[in-house]
Design goal:
Blueprint: H1 5-11, E1 17-18, E2 28-29, E3 44-50, E4 58-64, E5 72-77
Antiparallel strand pairs: 1-2, 3-4, 4-5
The structure holds zinc ion.
Zinc ion binds near residues 41, 66 and 69.
């Protein structure tokens, strides 16, 4: 089976181990980048952040970089 970016992102869950791609023997894990909940865009401007909330998680305040959307929301990174 030939793996494409689309098949990887639709068939696997975050944190899943992927079949090895290319010649590398290192395992590959999937961690999707944060996306805007309104438009699905991946261009986000982080304007404030808490690097460590005490439990190792981080919190970002972000604004969608798409001018037509410009949604503001928070991203929690576990
Ligand atoms: Zn957006």
């Amino acid at each position: 089976m030939k793996l494409t970016t689309e098949s990887i992102t639709t068939e696997l869950k975050p944190g899943d181990r992927l079949p090895n791609l290319g010649a590398s023997r290192l395992p590959v894990y999937l961690y999707p980048r944060p996306r805007c909940p309104e438009c699905g865009g991946t261009r986000l401007n982080k304007y404030r952040s808490l690097a460590d909330q005490g439990d190792g998680s981080a919190l970002w305040w972000v604004k969608c970089a798409d001018d037509d959307c410009a949604a503001k929301f928070k991203v929690l990174l576990e």
